[in-house]
Amino acid sequence: MLIIQVQENDISFFQELKANYPQYVEIIRPDSLFGANEIVEVVVAVTAVSVPVIGKVLTTLIKNKKITSIKYKGIEIDGISEKNVNNILNKLLEKENRANGNDRENNDNINTNVNS
Question: Who contacts 56 (Cβ-Cβ below 8 Å, separation ≥6)?
Answer without folding.
Answer: 114
